[in-house]
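Bench notes, afternoon.
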Amino acid sequence: MKKNTSLYLALLLLMASVFSFSGCSKLFGPSDADVIKALNESGAFTGFNMQAPVVVLEKNSRKDGSWRVKVKIKFTYEIANKQMSAPVEKTPVYNLIKSKDDKGNTAWKVKF
C-alpha cells in the first residue's frame, strides 16, 4: 500500500513538473507585469502620456494559444497650443501571444 502511494505521488509530481516547465501558454498566461511590459513595447501608446498605474482587469486564454487581456489605462494627450487634455480613462482589450525575441528569450507581444 505504501509503495503504491509513493508511486502515485511520484507520478503526480512528474506530471506537475512537465506542465510547469513546458511553458504551455494555455495553462499559464502572462503575469500583470508581462502584460504591462508588452503594452509598453508595442508602441500602441505613442503620442499619449500614460499615467500609472495600468491595471489588468481580465485575462482569458483563447484556442489559438493567445490571451485576451482587458486593461484599464489613464492617459492624456496634447491638444491645440501644446496644452494637455484632461485625463481620459479607457478599458481596451488586447490579444497577447508568446513569441521569441532576437536573443531567443520568450516574451509576450501584443497581437494587432
